[in-house]
Amino acid sequence: MLIAAQTPSRLRLISLLLAGVFAGASLAGMTGSAWALSELQQLPGQAPQQSQTAPPAVKDDSKTTPGLPLPDPLVGKSTSTPPASAADGPPPEIFHDISKAPEPVRKMRQMIVEAAASGDIERLRSLLGTGASQTQITGGEGEDPITTLKGFSGDGDGLEVLAILLDILSTGYAKVDAGTPDEAYVWPYFANKSLATLTPPDKVELLRIVTAGDLADMQEYGNYSFFRVGITPDGKWKFFSGGD
After folding, report:
1. Can you give the residue ranges of every domain in the chain?
2. pTM (2 d.p.)
3. What stretches of 125-200 adopt beta strand conformation (E)?
4. pLDDT tens for residues 38-65?
């Protein structure tokens, strides 16, 4: 009787337990399906999904800010000095052969060389002329020309000036202002040549007249700035000057 009385209760308990098991299984199945759907990459027949993260933008270097010019190309860019305009006139002729100069010019040059080599500065007096035809000497306006030349010299007798004359007249020369009243033959030719165009032999010749320090200073300013001699085509000693 006790067993029979307990049977319906046990059956009801078993039924409840089985219902709970089936309910749990059903819930587990639903949860598993949800996870599976969340992990599904694509459905059959559906196009592949694009990534939700956009790729970084790539800068287009082919476009430039409006109004800003492109830089000039380095290759093929000219660095040469533009040619002189016609208004500047033709460059002076430069010679190293004294035989190319007119005979009066050669004669006056030779007389200056001989006077300078003598060591007697007074021998220059007759070559310097007088009056309107007197040789133009820098800083010597109204003063005795020999006194002016001695003032240029580091010694009291003008020997340094005589040495400078010999050095200058031993270089090449330039023919300047051809065909004009100011035409002259000028020593040294550096006075009429851009120092930027000097060749190594040119520099050696110039260094016979000035020091390396003097040359560096001249190159900084671009001009020969030491003494020069000018003789006219008819053989007059036109000037002996220094500076630019």
Report:
1. 91-241
2. 0.62
3. 136-137, 173-176, 184-187
4. 444 444 444 445 445 545 554 554 444 4
